Amino acid sequence: MKKLILFGLILGLCAGQSFASFYFSDNFDSENSGNAMLDYDDFTNWGVSEGSVDLIGNGPPSTTFPFDFIPGHGLYVDMDGTINPKNAGTITHTFNLVENGTYQLSFYLAGNHRNNDYEQVDVKVGGPLGDLLINKSYSSTGNGLGQNVGFTLFTETFNLAGEGSYFLSFSGFGGDNIGLLLDDVTLVLVPLPATILLGLLGLGVGGLKLRKSLK
Ligand SMILES: [Ca+2]
Ligand SMILES: [Ca+2]
Ligand SMILES: [Ca+2]
After folding, report:
1. What is the mean pLDDT of the chain?
2. CA of 54 to the centre of ligand 1 (A)
3. Which residues lie across from 165 on neighbouring strands?
4. What is the distance between the alpha carbons of residues 158 and 168, in angstroms, rounded to a whole number?
5. Of 3, 33, 156, 170, which is most buried, counting CB atoms within 10 Å of its CB?
6. Answer CATH for 21-190 from 3.10.20.600, 3.40.50.720, 2.60.120.260, 3.30.450.20
7. Which pLDDT tens digit goes with each residue over 154-199?
């Protein structure tokens, strides 16, 4: 029995390590060869629909392209584009689930840095059955993303299970081509701590002992 427990402990620790899977991350910095572009629609990981978004940042403000409001973050996305100001854009990343589990989505949003109008970004994660696992709005009032507020980290945790196509989307809001700014989107499989596995193992061993003693 001692050997079995030791083996279980090692197995549990190894499993705890292997669960720390990195899944998806995008800081937008390598888009368009690192150059900002208004109404950008050629994202590596995202499709653009329902209007447009701007790829901005990556350098000191110039007179011709004065749109790096928060220097030091490479490129990032203005969720309300330029040509189609009455229809702020949606960017969507689709992916096939590799592993069931609890996932954490994190991203940074910042104020529009140009006017004090109400701004909003809707974040959705959808499953293969049409179900929404995340459906949440972040706004310049409810989340304090006022005009000149810098990038703020937001995280959401949810469960993904079952094969099929999932999507993650961010939708801008507005009609004045000025929107909230988005950067550093990350989706990771939350590690199942080794301690939990060991606890489960302990329960299993305890159950075995109980069964034996009841016989
Ligand atoms: Ca960036
Ligand atoms: Ca814009
Ligand atoms: Ca706006």
Report:
1. 85
2. 13
3. 96
4. 12
5. 170
6. 2.60.120.260
7. 999 999 988 889 999 999 998 789 999 999 999 999 987 754 665 5
